[in-house]
Write the structure tokens for this entry.
Amino acid sequence: MRAMTYRGPYKIQVADKPIPALEHPGDAIVRVTHAGVCGSDLHLYHGMIPDTRIGHTFGHEIVGVVHEVGSGVQNLAPGDRVMVPFNIYCGSCYFCSRGLFSNCHNVNPNATAVGGIYGYSHTAGGYDGGQAEYVRVPFADVGPKPVPDWLSAEDALMLTDAFSTGYFGAQLGDIDERDTVVVFGAGPVGLSAARSAWFLGAGRVIVIDHIQHRLEKARDFAYAETMHLAEHKDIVLALKRATDGLGADVVIDAVGAEADGSVVQHVTGAKLKLQGGSPVALNWAIDSARKGGTVSVIGAYGPLVSAVRFGDVVNKGLTLRANQAPVARQWPRLLEHIRSGHLRPGELLTHRFPLEDIGEAYHVFSSKLDGCIKPIIVVGEE
């Protein structure tokens, strides 16, 4: 089969790899039709994530058709069109039984925190991802779900991570009616969080970014007020002035490890890798929240971020909540919103590339070219 393979920072290529085989009775092999390129894939592409090995295939946003199932699989059959959550989880351990699918205890021998993730280095289990013609799906009776006939492949793809993660970020904010919600980052996840904040009762939503076309999308898709970082000498002060001097009730960090805004933090975190990314956006979130407010963190960070204003978290009495999204928990609500006509996650997609051009997809997305917000890879026919 043809598959994207990692060759080092900023270097990927499409190469021939063996079609994955069934390794356990609960496995399925899925023929991929659509795969997303996620903002967190860029952290891998830029060399930010530890233990990303040469030859690894990225891609944790997957829609496809079941090609083969193991002898123990009961809920899927060859020919089923499925959407695959980015989480790999067993469904029965201590954490899965509590809905913490992203923290499954049985799928990742390399960490005590995150569970398994498709195509996200050996720190997340070493599973090859779906930016390929085929992908092995463990615990196939637990994770992947048949795509309803009325749901498009592109809307389904956005539910496998980006929109579900944004919705989860808004949930973590514990939004009360009429709360002011600030979202740092107008990428696909930040835009999804901003749109989702309205579903949960927000009275005001403000999105901050430094790229004009993403702010335009925030106004169009998320119905949000926007602030351009370059237009404010001190974004925290600007937000305080916009919120009666108090700060926001809820702040969502949807940026993560590669935030600009501080030369020192960007160099030590994003360039020299002396910490697990630049904590600029997280510190802005902490400073922008009102006393007693909530900070929700859904941006991806490495394991060590040392320059966080944690004293401010304590002294302001903030609630800090974070996790990788347990995607399947969000699906019932989001599918209801889509079927009712209140939501079209696929509206965030701006670029579509064939698998052979995936290098161009990464370049366009990484460099924010051509108004790119969310690229996907069209791998095969449904």
In short: Residues 237 and 329 are 36 Å apart (CA to CA). Confidence is low (pLDDT under 50) at residues 261-270, 272-276. The first helix runs from residue 39 to 45.
